[in-house]
From TrEMBL:
PROSITE patterns: GST_CTER, GST_NTER. Residues 1-20 are annotated as: Disordered. Pfam families: GST_C_2, GST_N. This is Glutathione S-transferase domain. It comes from Delftia acidovorans (strain DSM 14801 / SPH-1). Residues 23-104 form the GST N-terminal domain.
Length: 227
């Protein structure tokens, strides 16, 4: 694992959040992981100073005892907030929103929280098994049926297109962690041969997220429709 200094952005409210000396959050990530990008994007949008630790997935660093001690599932991302260790991208989004009391990104209230949870489930279900899986086929030679995962991607993109019609962000007028959770694997869907051209509202939504202060781009690969 290799630590990198992250030049953190200004964040959505144009200020940097500095942790006390020596206690910056650490994000264990891999640059081509959309799950890891999801967490990194939120840190950027929040303007939280953090250190990136590169986990070399290509060489199996995620299955070494040192990493398994942080996340027994052997996957990135993992956040280490001065000894509080959170694994799983969606769990990290929830943790950061609540720890930093950012109700703008994750509102309180039974209905609002249930609505957010629904989108986190969509990120972990149809998005992971649709556009994310399609990209795994082209970028990492994963043994999935390309046609099947591409069809799944279009099925969920159609639903998201409908949701975004007349709504700038997934749950309403302002962005929440629901948008952060879905961004990375939808933005990178063309790498898995999932064409976003039919989805005008989805493409406009991607643009709105990319225009947010503190936005951090997901590394592109020349795969699929981007080849
Ligand atoms: N549910 C997890 C999924 C994380 C995940 O699938 N991570 C992948 C990279 S995108 C990984 O670490 N794969 C390495 C492995 O499973 O060995 C999350 O949301 O964080």
């Amino acid at each position: 694992m290799r630590a990198e200094k992250e030049d953190t952005s200004r964040g959505a409210d144009n200020r940097r959040l500095h942790q006390p000396q020596g206690t910056a959050m650490k994000l264990y990530h891999f640059p081509l992981s959309g799950h890891a990008h999801r967490a990194r994007l939120f840190l950027g949008l929040l303007g939280v100073e953090h250190e990136l630790v590169h986990v070399d997935l290509a060489n199996g660093a995620q299955k070494k005892p040192e990493f398994l001690a942080l996340n027994p599932l052997g996957q990135v991302p993992v956040l280490d907030d001065n000894g509080t260790v959170i694994a799983d991208s969606n769990a990290i989004l929830v943790y950061l929103a609540r720890k930093l009391d950012r109700q703008d990104w994750m509102p309180l209230g039974a209905q609002a929280e249930a609505e957010i949870q629904k989108w986190l489930s969509i990120a972990a279900g149809p998005i992971a098994f649709g556009p994310a899986a399609a990209r795994l086929v082209t970028v990492f030679k994963a043994p999935f049926q390309a046609e099947e995962v591409i069809a799944r991607a279009h099925a969920i993109l159609g639903k998201i297109e409908a949701q975004l019609t007349g709504r700038p962000f997934l749950t309403g007028a302002t962005p929440t962690i629901a948008d952060v959770a879905l961004y990375s694997y939808i933005a990178s869907a063309p790498e898995g041969n999932v064409d976003l051209q039919p989805y005008r509202e989805v493409r406009a939504w991607l643009g709105r997220i990319e225009a947010l202060p503190g936005f951090v781009a997901f590394a592109q690969t020349p795969a699929g429709l981007r080849a």
